[in-house]
């Protein structure tokens, strides 16, 4: 460790001890401006023998115990490196005293997180989303019959809630509780992922790869020359690692994140962990989109990219409406001809003032040979007054110059063709 980095760490250790309680909030806001402090703390944690490790761990615990959210997030960014140092300690030539400092820090954070402000044990609850309700991941209409089943359950107020806790206080790490504690700490880390720095995300990806490949043939492929003994993992621990890797993939760490995800899936296949395989393969499938690499930026907004299912139309395009009925051609099987109702363009109901009434349907006759007879004026379909019908019927059909006589003749012609089912179609078409 360089003397300059050591000086930065020592200055950081001394200034917090003399800080009054009223200035903790402003001090926490100023930590992000100290660019050389974070790399120096990483070097202290990674060294096998360092006199500064014990005071650094004690300072980090004081930060977390203060309850200031920004100081707690400052501590959480070092969590992946602390976890790796703890897992590495039994297999590496590391001073047991220094590794004990890291154990005390991690156990202290764990014991603080499992209780509330009153000292009561926390019970975390997670509501499993219903597939019958839309989300950014899916549309219920695209699932089919499953949506109906889920919808019936949702209507009865049935929702699945998963509880975690209460968790037991731990005073020391054992082979039985080690990954229970580490998994819970990773859960706390993932809850603050949007505040993590790039160096912290890189450390998480490196932790994931090393834990999963050490002692397996893939370690030679990755050319990692650290420990060669296998590390025991659990399925829940790998799922928490995958959650952090997913965030790193979408926020600038594409290369490291891709390798880490492949290594975790490799280990999950060897261990036959179904939960880790399910989550990991789902994320791997979602990142096939080429936009993942192009839009990933270390300086951009922190986010998680998902492929949104296109929203289906709420109204079917084949829905029967009044407009579709007007243009629909009704055909009756077994009849020699068919009658079609359609809209007669350019005409209105003459019964309304100014001719601006509702549209009058048109009757067209389709004969068996495919010919069609269609009158030009729809007004014959309107029932004329009795006295007008009588007067129009007395006029000669060949010499009546008025429009009423023509209407009556057209109406009779159409009625005769419909009743008889045959007639001089070509003559009728030529006449009208």
TrEMBL record:
Keyword Cell membrane: yes
Protein name, UniProt field: Family with sequence similarity 126 member A
Biased amino acid composition, Polar residues: 358-369
Compartment(s) of residence: Cell membrane; Cytoplasm, Cytosol
Gene that this sequence comes from: FAM126A
PANTHER family according to UniProt: HYCCIN (PTHR31220:SF4), HYCCIN RELATED (PTHR31220)
GO biological process: phosphatidylinositol phosphate biosynthetic process; protein localization to plasma membrane
GO CC list: cytosol; plasma membrane
Family statement: Belongs to the Hyccin family.
Keyword terms: Cell membrane, Cytoplasm, Membrane
Disordered, as annotated region: 339-432
Family annotation (InterPro entries): Hyccin (IPR018619)
Chief location of this protein within or outside the cell: membrane
